[in-house]
Amino acid sequence: MDTQTKLDKIETYVKQKFYNDPTGHDYNHMKRVAKMAKKIALKEQANPFVAEVSGWLHDIGDKKLFSNPAIAIEEMNEFLSCIDLSPKQVTIINEIISNVSFRKGKTPHSIEGKIVQDSDRLDAMGAIGIARAFAFGGAHDRLIHAEDKEFKDTATIQHFYDKLLQLKDLMNTKTAQEIANDRHEMMVVFLKQFYYEWNINEKKSD
Ligand code: ADP
Ligand code: NI
C-alpha cells in the first residue's frame, strides 16, 4: 500500500470517529493538527509521515472523548497493522498519543511527538483557539464571562488565563514558537476588545 493510500484510509477512519464532536475535538481539529504537524516536521527535519499520522490520531483514546479508552487504542492498533504500518511505527505512534495531552503535563520523547504536541497546542490558540474555547464552554453549559465569584472561575474567559495565554511559553520547536507568537498576539487583542465591549462606558485603553 502506498503512503498516500495509507493517509487516505487514516483520514476516513478519523472522520468516522470524530465527525460530530461539539466540544472542539471534531474531525476538522484532527485534520488541522495533522496538516500542521506535517508542515512543522518538514521544517524541523523530522519524519513527516509519522508526524502527520500521529496528528490525525492524537485524540484517539482520550478519556473525555471515549467511554473505553483501552479498547479504542487496541482497535486503532489493529487498524494500523491492517493498513501495513510496521509494529515499530505503531509503537512510536502509541508513545506519541499517550503523551501529547496538555492535561497529562508530559512531553513526548520523539521529535515527531514534540511536533504533534506543538500542533495540538497551536490549535488551541489564535482565532480558531478562541472559537474552540467558546464551543467547549457552550457544550459544557458554561458562561462566556462573569464578574461574580460564583460563576467567574468556570466561565470560558477564565480559561484564557488558566491555559491559553500560557501556551506560547510551552512550545517544543522553533517553527511552532514563531506561529505561537502570532496566535498569542491575536488572543491578547481579542481579550482587550472583549473587555472594552463588556464595560460599555469605559474608554478604550492601549
Ligand atoms: P488536551 O486534549 O490537550 O488535554 P483539552 O481537551 O483540555 O486539551 O483542550 C482542548 C480544547 O478544549 C482546547 O481548545 C481548549 O481551549 C478547550 N478547553 C478545554 N478546557 C476548557 C475550558 N474549561 N473552557 C474552555 N475551553 C476549554
Ligand atoms: Ni487535540
Automatic annotation (TrEMBL):
<feature type="domain" description="HD">
    <location>
        <begin position="26"/>
        <end position="125"/>
    </location>
</feature>
<protein>
    <recommendedName>
        <fullName>HD domain-containing protein</fullName>
    </recommendedName>
</protein>
<dbReference type="Pfam" id="PF01966">
    <property type="entry name" value="HD"/>
</dbReference>
<dbReference type="InterPro" id="IPR003607">
    <property type="entry name" value="HD/PDEase_dom"/>
</dbReference>
<dbReference type="InterPro" id="IPR006674">
    <property type="entry name" value="HD_domain"/>
</dbReference>
